[in-house]
Amino acid sequence: xxxxxxxxxxxxxxxxxxxxxxxxxxxxxxxxxxxxxxxxxxxxxxxxxxxxxxxxxxxxxxxxxxxxxxxxxxxxxxxxxxxxxxxxxxxxxxxxxxxxxxxxxxxxxxxxxxxxxxxxxxxxxxxxxxxxxxxxxxxxxxxxxxxxxxxxxxxxxxxxxxxxxxxxxxxxxxxxxxxxxxxxxxxxxxxxxxxxxxxxxxxxxxxxxxxxxxxxxxxxxxxxxxxxxxxxxxxxxxxxxxxxxxxxxxxxxxxxxxxxxxxxxxxxxxxxxxxxxxxxxxxxxxxxxxxxxxxxxx
Length: 298
Description:
Helix content: over 70%
Structural class: mainly alpha
Number of strands: 0
InterPro entries: Diverse_Substrate_Transporter (IPR051258), EamA_dom (IPR000620), EmrE-like (IPR037185)
Number of domains: 1
Membrane topology: Multi-pass membrane protein
Main location: membrane
Strand content: under 5%
Transmembrane segments: 33-53, 65-87, 99-116, 123-139, 151-171, 178-199, 214-231, 243-260, 266-285
Keywords: Cell membrane, Membrane, Transmembrane, Transmembrane helix
Distance between the termini: 18 Å
């Protein structure tokens, strides 16, 4: 797979997440955040499992204990990202949550440098800032006052950045993206359901009311999109992936216009344009100015 094809997969993942963002908010009208998270990723696990088993059957060599521990660690990072975002939505707006979650665009290269001394291509820094500005404009310039939900969402963005970085370090060496996808989903499902059983009411009628959101968020946002992310990250860097995945904010606006009759103001269109510029810059500029191909490590 070429880097361009990988980045297109990341764009598709962003589109799926953009369409599913509302589902995450409306589901909690019926059930709690831990129960929704657990059920959502249980569905994702079941959706990916047959493909992961097929991948394992074709594998040349088995995974090591270190590989499995790495996959489990990535699942913990994903659990932190999903749960803190989900709980944050109880006390913040969808607009603020979308903007603050997008902070992972800037946090990812910073964490990569701090944790592993891996410096991205110089274009990543201005592109990340441009994408961040685009998300801010797309949100209508929200998130000016911080509630508890806003701070929890910032914490979720940090976990998103960590998940991106560790996927970048684990996906390519093992060559088992589907196994990684099903493992991280299973970790999130088990943790979410165990905590839900301990702290949230379990009512079958409420689950039935939230079933459409659970199915979409599980099969598509959870199963398909996260699998596309892992596959795409085998051929690109964590910092570049963050830029492309930030397109979810653009797609959320587009799908809102198509299916809900919403219309973006001029600032929203400006935000879409800035994110698009950041994506094009990351894709094109390194190739224009590179004297020879060079592999990046993050």
